[in-house]
Amino acid sequence: MARLIEVEDAEDPRLVDYRDLRDVSLRKHLEAEHGLFLAEGEKVVRRAVESGFPVRSFLMAPRWLDGLSDVLARADAPCYVVSEPLAERVTGFHVHRGALASLERLPLPSVPDVLAGARTVVLLEDVVDHTNVGAAFRSAAALGIDGVLLAPRCADPLYRRAVKVSMGAVFTVPYARLEDWYDALPQVSAAGFTTVALTLAADASDIEDAVQGLERVALVLGTEGRGLSPRWEGSADRRAVIPMRAGIDSLNVAAATAVACYVTARRTR
Fold first, then answer.
1. Percentage of the chain surpassing pLDDT 70?
2. Which of 32, 75, 142, 190 is 20–30 Å from 43 (CA)?
3. Among 50, 260, 87, 20, which Cα is nearest to 168's?
């Protein structure tokens, strides 16, 4: 059972995991050094613990203790109980959801592990915005996608903002980092998937037509702004576009992922 510890000093060294959450460079350094990540909000904290991530500690305002009492009962970790103003001083922002948890990362599965048994996966190339990565995972989880593969430069799915936007979907959708960016798509194709690149290329087919009849599909989406690199676009098995009305030529990558996942999940074999 979690040990409830009241803390009244914002500089208490036991709160180091939660300090200055707005400072991205600081967070990346801390998380890389200690192998931790943060979950924010009752639902996300619960999903993280239920997914098997070891808990380092909790940080909670008193009013959230009852709602997470069952989670605290199962965790062997300290729960630092602080006032909401103190939580704001420690983290650097208003913790309006009242509960935070620091958890240890687990080893990622390999690319073959994610692909094994999967029917539909999403490949993200250099999507660097944590909000977009989190939204992509949320869509993947909601629409029955089996896994996500990330290019080396993609944002961290376990960064606090990505976890929050995904509503904990990053804990349930299997994902892996691609080590070989250059030949990533040919390797996925060799594993039995048809890679379908979302692009505005003139020869791109309607997304519904592009995925019909396919047994295993890998949807390929590119970074914010410029989209897919020429290498990934050119090495995809098929190129597809989401049809739009005149005047709008593209969607945000998170929105495009949602549409592509929905259409692909409804395809017929």
1. 93
2. 32
3. 50
